[in-house]
TrEMBL record:
This is Phosphoserine aminotransferase. Its cofactor is pyridoxal 5'-phosphate. The keyword Amino-acid biosynthesis applies. One of its GO terms (molecular function) is pyridoxal phosphate binding. Pfam families: Aminotran_5. It comes from Liparis tanakae. It catalyses: O-phospho-L-serine + 2-oxoglutarate = 3-phosphooxypyruvate + L-glutamate; 4-(phosphooxy)-L-threonine + 2-oxoglutarate = (R)-3-hydroxy-2-oxo-4-phosphooxybutanoate + L-glutamate.
Length: 367
């Protein structure tokens, strides 16, 4: 009997089995039309239905207000690091934006934005990405065009447990690694984006949700494929969109809906992440998560093994033993080291339990 594989990867990551089976079933012949979604014109009525389904499920699952556009774009999450300033930094005459830099991804976003305007990091620079600076230490600029933050830092495992208060300045959020893992009030944001390859689909498509009144302010150098006004006016079909990836997003959203939506996902994600954090907390330092308890991510749990700062030989052993049990993609990001367990929506409670059991046994054997 083949051993069961559990994929704890940080992204691209596990997709629900039922989504893969559906895609497999429809791969050669989509809905009886005689060919694949991979071979379908993006201007066809059939693809139009696929696109509309992805959009309307997104609207339904996130209760997106009518004055927001939903777009499915190329260029990845990193493409949005450029598109956001190109479209929005000129909203106010100072041509500047405020950035919260709490990990690799917001750091990259801030760096990219510097090409297009003035970037103000609103808090004292962090030397380690293990906490979110207290809002009382932030100096927000009232004439900033927007305030940018990364809701969940995938590499460092830092997730906000609050929505930043911007005193009326537009709020922009990277939700690449936690969109639809918990409810969110879209009306608080000017723009939300997410690369799909964690909780909402596969690589190749980036979801952008933007308030309508923010369209039409792009800098003149903005590439036309990144111009929100152009893409919104064309319903993401200015040029060929990532058709198959959009199809997969539709299937994943259907799965989320059938499983109770974002509130149900949140309940499971709290339960799953607690199982792992509880073991870390009770391990007397054998497992160590460097992230402040107030902002520990439910999606990505980075930890070291053996001693403070990590015993690299023991971590290798941990990964090898996990892999023997079919638990894969647990290696920490190369910039952080150690272990990272990603527990996105598609990772089940049972799979998380298997990891928890393994961690307890490994602790017993090596403490
Ligand atoms: N933001 C976050 C939070 C991410 O996790 C990632 C990628 N893992 C990105 C942005 C960049 O996305 P991409 O690789 O699609 O450019």
């Amino acid at each position: 009997e083949p051993k069961q594989i559990i994929n704890f990867g940080a992204g691209p990551s596990k997709l629900p089995q039922s989504v893969l089976l559906q895609a497999q079933k429809e791969l050669l012949d989509y809905g009886g039309i005689g060919f694949s979604v991979l071979e379908m014109s993006h201007r066809s009525a059939d693809f139009g239905k696929i696109l509309n389904k992805a959009e309307s499920l997104m609207r339904e699952l996130l209760s997106i207000p009518d004055n927001y556009k939903v777009m499915f774009l190329q260029g990845g999450g990193s493409g949005q690091f450029s598109a956001i300033p190109l479209n929005l930094i000129g909203l106010k005459e100072d041509n500047c934006a405020d950035y919260l830099v709490t990990g690799t991804w917001s750091e990259r976003a801030a760096k990219e934005a510097e090409k297009y305007g003035k970037v103000n990091i609103v808090h004292p620079k962090l030397d380690r990405y293990t906490k979110i600076p207290d809002p009382s230490s932030w100096t927000l600029n009232p004439s900033a065009s927007y305030v940018y933050y990364c809701y969940n830092e995938t590499v460092h495992g830092v997730e906000y447990d609050f929505t930043p208060e911007t005193n009326g300045v537009l709020l922009v959020s990277d939700m690449s690694s936690n969109l639809l893992s918990r409810p969110v009030d879209v009306s608080k944001f000017g723009l939300i984006f997410a690369g799909a390859q964690k909780n909402v689909g596969c690589a190749g498509v980036t979801v952008v949700i933007v308030r309508e009144d923010l369209l039409g302010h792009a800098q003149k150098e903005c590439p036309i494929t990144m111009d929100y006004k152009v893409q919104a006016a064309n319903n993401s079909l200015y040029n060929t969109p990532p058709c198959y990836s959009i199809y997969i997003v539709g299937l994943v959203l259907e799965w989320i809906k059938n499983n109770g939506g974002s509130a149900a996902m949140e309940t499971l994600n709290k339960q799953k992440s607690s199982m792992i954090y509880d073991i870390i907390n009770a391990s007397n330092g054998f497992y160590e998560c460097p992230v402040d308890v107030s902002c520990r991510s439910r999606m990505n749990i980075p930890f070291r093994v053996g001693k403070k700062g990590g015993d690299e030989a023991l971590e290798k052993e941990f990964l090898a033993a996990a892999s023997k049990r079919g638990m894969l993609s647990l290696k920490g990001h190369r910039s952080v080291g150690g272990i990272r367990a990603s527990l996105y929506n598609a990772v089940t409670v049972e799979e998380t339990e298997a990891l928890a059991t393994f961690m307890k046994e490994f602790l017993k054997e090596h403490q």
